[in-house]
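Section 5.1 Outputs to date
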Amino acid sequence: MPGLLALAGAWAAALLGTLLLCRLWHSGAAKAPRTASLTAIMLAGTTAALMAVASTADRLAAGVGTGVSRLHLWRDALQLWTEAAWLGHGGDTWRNMFRAIQSSPYVGGEVHNGLLDLALDTGLVGILLVAGWFLVTLRSMLHVAPQLMPSVLIFGLHGAMDFDWSFTLFWMLFIWLGAWAAALKTEAMEGKRSEVTVEYSPSRPHLSDSPPIQSRLVSLPMRSCSHILQRLTYWGIRASVVMIILFWLGGTVWLTSRYAVAEVQYRQAMSESDGTPVQKAHLMAAFQSNPNRPDIILSLARSLRGQEAESLLLNSLSHSPVHPQIYFELGRLAAQFGEGQQAGEYFEQAIALNRYDGIGQSAALYWMEQAARREWEAGFTDRAQQTAVAGIHMYERYRLLVEKVEAGDVHNDRRFVMEEHALDYGENLRKLASATASSPRYTPEIF
């Protein structure tokens, strides 16, 4: 049945596409050369329709493929977009935030929808600007270069339902196609101008037909000023374009070289033994070349002392505020210092940003237990009990989320399960909480 529906839908889409292209050809595109362009457009439209419908049916049929998973992605993306509908959340929103808002443990660094990805980054304002740009480009191509329409339609339609728009190369190709159409339009206009002939009369004009001498003398300075202004404008535009290109190329080369140096230094650091001065020196050099890379920051923080590491991690939150591993590292440092309440707050933030990370949740329980033990050994029994209770709450939320995933019919691509030692950590936290007094009654949260 799905195969029949796919075949019927493909032929219907192909027929509608062919009729639409024929209509456009006989109306707006009739002025273009009618060589093999019409045949090429019809074949391209039919092929695109067949491939698009067949691919869509294959993805959605009986939950096989990636169709059902993409529906979960799009639903979560729409919910995230409503939080900043007009201006968006900024660059790379989905890749940085999908772990914090995903409704099931899927793996999806791309939202697989160009429109949603653009809406998350720039909001409705960006969508309107890009839509206007698309319409102007399509209108120009339709009237001047209809043979380029299949390429543009493939870019637009496929990118709207996949992650093509995430790559700079596709935008460069679209700009190139638009520039190609503009060049063809300019060439056609120049061709029409060259066909216009000017009649030349060798007879000498009468004195009565020539303009007065005074008007000619007045028009000469005006023409020269206009000519000078045009040349200055022309040279100003050229100089501005050259400066922009040089700034772009220079900045790209400079930034790329710094990133390359950071990558080389980081790899050398990872090849050294942990905690050695040589490794620390390589990590410092990598951090100085690229202070915004979370993996370099985390590795460097583990090689520093407590206060220095904490200061480095807190400063890194200014440019990586939604990176869960940074919060987890801060929680681990707080737990080592015996500050259970602070560790719990950091771990809660890390879990909120990546709650389907079973290994991370189990590690958080371990460090909450260690923090409670350190507070107990230091004589702070009340603080130890509060830390243990907070750890029990983390454990119960973890357990309920695992049960929800196991009971639901969702793809557990991240293999989110109850880790082996998490049960022991939960039991140890209960013992610590009841060592001095009975722990408060726990009320499970509804997910």
